[in-house]
């Protein structure tokens, strides 16, 4: 997969792209992330990328020309008539695991990071295929939002995570929150690890984990629980867990 990011601040991505899972995926050629400074697509001597809003009001608005040219330059380089292009925006559809999976199935993806008061509306109307918000709060720019999307999408690419099995049980992947995790020491400041995890009985451990995952989701995220598809065994585990708790 190749991801092209259009931004006024390419240096903000240095950490994400050089460390951890994303850094390794890049190093192993599993994904190619290219950064484009929107300023380099201007033609005036001051490299102006923004202007005052028509109709007045506070702040500056990112101009259409450099953004259109940057996206067209990417599709030209790829030899494609168009590329799936996302504008990061607080007004977009809410990002979640399902949307991440959708994006991870694309061969190419362009992400546009807005800044200041936002982006001239003609970009949303005539250039992008989607607008995505990472949550109901306001960021200063689309860069942090793009990093969230990039990290989440790259984790889903084949070969990026060491163990595909571990992915299957993680929070939001199968629609539930993950069970609690523990590591050594078995006792810390008098707080013990659940005994079942030390038993070596893998069948019982898997059953306990599923029950914890169901219980946790029901208590913390009833909205997810409503959408979850539960087997008869899941329902039994859940009612047993509530009986134990009460
Ligand atoms: N004036 C705009 C509005 O009220 O909708 C907000 C502009 S915001 C300060 C600047 C840029 O940050 C946006 O163009 C967008 O790229 C990004 N941004 C802010 N909040 C975001 C969010 N929740 N999700 C995705 N991008 C966001």
Notes on the structure:
- With 246 residues, this protein is an alpha/beta fold.
- It has 2 domains: 153 residues, Alpha/beta knot (3-Layer(aba) Sandwich), CATH 3.40.1280; 77 residues, Orthogonal Bundle (Trp Operon Repressor, Chain A).
- 41% of the residues lie in helices and 16% in strands.
- The strands form 3 sheets. A 5-stranded parallel β-sheet has the order 2-1-6-5-7, with helices on both faces. The chain has a two-stranded antiparallel sheet with strand order 3-4.
- The longest helix has 19 residues.
- It binds S-adenosylmethionine.
Q: Rg from C-alpha positions?
A: 23 Å
What small ligands are held by the chains?
Answer: S-adenosylmethionine
Order of helices and strands: EHHEEEHEHEHEHHEEHHH
Binned strand content: 15-25%
Strands side by side in the biggest sheet: 2-1-6-5-7
**Uncertain stretches:** none
From the structure above, extract its key features.
246 residues; alpha/beta; Alpha/beta knot; 2 domains; five-stranded parallel beta sheet; 10 helices; elongated; binds S-adenosylmethionine
């Amino acid at each position: 997969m190749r991801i092209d990011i259009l931004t006024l601040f390419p240096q903000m991505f240095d950490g994400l792209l050089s460390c951890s899972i994303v850094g390794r995926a890049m190093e192993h050629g599993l994904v190619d992330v290219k950064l484009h400074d929107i300023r380099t697509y201007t033609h005036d001597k001051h490299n102006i990328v923004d202007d005052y809003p028509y109709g007045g009001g506070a702040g500056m608005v990112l101009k259409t020309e450099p953004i259109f040219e940057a996206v067209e330059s990417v599709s030209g380089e790829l030899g494609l008539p168009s590329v799936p292009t996302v504008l990061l925006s607080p007004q977009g559809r809410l990002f979640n695991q399902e949307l991440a999976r959708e994006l991870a199935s694309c061969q190419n993806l362009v992400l546009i990071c807005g800044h200041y008061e936002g982006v001239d509306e003609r970009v949303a109307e005539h250039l992008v295929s989607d607008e995505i918000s990472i949550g109901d709060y306001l960021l200063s720019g689309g860069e942090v939002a793009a990093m969230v999307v990039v990290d989440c999408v790259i984790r889903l690419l084949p070969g990026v995570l060491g163990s595909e099995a571990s992915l299957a049980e993680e929070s939001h992947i199968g629609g539930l929150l993950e069970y609690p995790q523990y590591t050594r020491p078995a006792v810390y400041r008098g707080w013990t690890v659940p005994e079942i995890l030390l038993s070596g009985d893998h069948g019982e451990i898997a059953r306990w984990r599923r029950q914890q995952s169901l219980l946790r989701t029901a208590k913390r995220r009833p909205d997810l629980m409503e959408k979850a598809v539960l087997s008869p065994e899941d329902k039994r585990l859940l009612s047993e867990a509530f009986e134990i708790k009460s």
